[in-house]
Amino acid sequence: MTGLLLPWLKFVICVAMIGLAGPVLTRYADTIAHLTGLSRSWIGLVLIATATSLPELFTGISAVTAANAPNIAVGDALGSCVFNLVMLVLLDELSRKEPMYRRIDQGHILTAGFGVILIGTAGAFLLLSQNALSFTLLHISAYTPFIIVIYLVAMRAAYVYERRVHWPPEPAKVDGSITLRSAALRYTAAATVVAVAGSWLPFVGQEIATAMGWKTTFVGTLFVAGATSVPELVVTISTLRLGAVDMAIGNLLGSNLFDILILAADDLAYRKGPLLSAVSPAHAITAFAAAIMSGIFIVAMLYKPQTRLGGAIGWVSLSLLIVYLLSAYAVFLLGH
Question: Which domains are seen in the chain, by residue range?
Answer without folding.
Answer: 2-334 (1.20.1420.30)
